[in-house]
Amino acid sequence: MMKTLMVILYLIAIVLANVITASNDPIVWGKLIVPMGTFLIGATFILRDMVQNAIGRKWTYAAIAAAMVLSAASSYALGDTLWITAASALTFLCSETADTEIYTRLRLPMSLKVLYSGIVGGVLDSVIFVVIGLSPLGAGFLPWSLVGYAVAGQIALKLAMQGIGALAVHYVPQTRSPSYKA
Question: What pTM value is reported for the model?
Answer without folding.
Answer: 0.89
